[in-house]
């Protein structure tokens, strides 16, 4: 048995999450049964979706989230000791998983056998993991960008947004991004965005979009939602495509439905295709997407950046910081 720590989702969030909404518990892991594996977490992820999904969770459970860890004990031959895996085992240092009878909604994923040794394993939670697949499939499957088109993404310096812009450039598009600080804007331009602006300091979002995308927007990858998106839709070109990935601007609202302007006439008149998505819909294709992202990283076409918080005890701080934009690139916790 191994001493394990986990964070319990102790109280429903009332507005922005607080440290008191979580409870740190220390316990011993149970002895393994046939078909089970014991995973020691190396990195734990913090992502915006966690804030949204907690609305429907019961308190008292382990806080949700994905981790990347190594098998340290096994009673299932398909997952020998030393295997690196990714799984939604939540905010914990160790997890006992049933590898023989897996939940298809929460599969245990092995790190690719040919994963480059010179790439950090934390990228399996970032550019080569769920955020990378979100950018890859969300943009290419739903927006289907064509060479010469303009792709706009908000939350552009986050785990998903920066990859959307870089993939757009690989596909021969103009990449435009919005981020929340001058330093983030500078980084976006450094990694290849054609235009970027600080949405917090511009006098008018409408004017900033006109300047950054004077020929209109063909593909919009939305991470923010609400009034921001209502404004962007006015700048879409005819037959534009919109991928709704997130709505982080509303996640702390007590009334997430909001009371913003209705966009339906704009969608109708511009004949837009607007699609919300959850990236697991393409799960069978993830190996292909992961291989492509690794190749682009090795070729220098995709640049990655991580915001690493040291220490498992700092999971709540990392989560709260990510929600207010303290991170540039993917936010992870090194256990």
From TrEMBL:
> What start-end ranges are recorded for coiled-coil regions in this protein?
none
Places the protein is found = Cytoplasm
Where mainly located? cytoplasm
EC number(s): the record gives: 1.3.1.48, 1.3.1.74
**Sorted alphabetically, which keywords does the UniProt record give?**
Acetylation, Cytoplasm, Fatty acid metabolism, Hydroxylation, Lipid metabolism, NADP, Oxidoreductase, Phosphoprotein, Prostaglandin metabolism
Question: What's the name of the protein?
Answer: Prostaglandin reductase 1
Organism domain of life: Eukaryota
Name the GO cellular-component terms: cytoplasm
Keyword Transcription regulation carried by entry: no
Q: Which SUPFAM superfamilies match?
A: GroES-like, NAD(P)-binding Rossmann-fold domains
Start and end of every Enoyl reductase (ER) domain? 15-333
Q: Which family does it belong to?
A: Belongs to the NADP-dependent oxidoreductase L4BD family.
For biological process, the GO terms are: prostaglandin metabolic process
Q: Which GO terms describe its molecular function?
A: 15-oxoprostaglandin 13-reductase [NAD(P)+] activity; 2-alkenal reductase [NAD(P)H] activity
Q: Which Pfam families match?
A: ADH_N_2, ADH_zinc_N
Complexes and interactors: Monomer or homodimer.
Top-level EC class as recorded in UniProt: oxidoreductase
Q: InterPro entries from the xrefs?
A: ADH-like_C, ADH_N_2, ER, GroES-like_sf, MDR_fam, NAD(P)-bd_dom_sf, PTGR1
The record's catalysed reaction(s) read: 6-trans-leukotriene B4 + NADP(+) = 12-oxo-(5S)-hydroxy-(6E,8E,10E,14Z)-eicosatetraenoate + NADPH + H(+); (5S,12S)-dihydroxy-(6E,10E,12E,14Z)-eicosatetraenoate + NADP(+) = 12-oxo-(5S)-hydroxy-(6E,8E,10E,14Z)-eicosatetraenoate + NADPH + H(+); decanal + NADP(+) = (2E)-decenal + NADPH + H(+); dodecanal + NADP(+) = (2E)-dodecenal + NADPH + H(+)
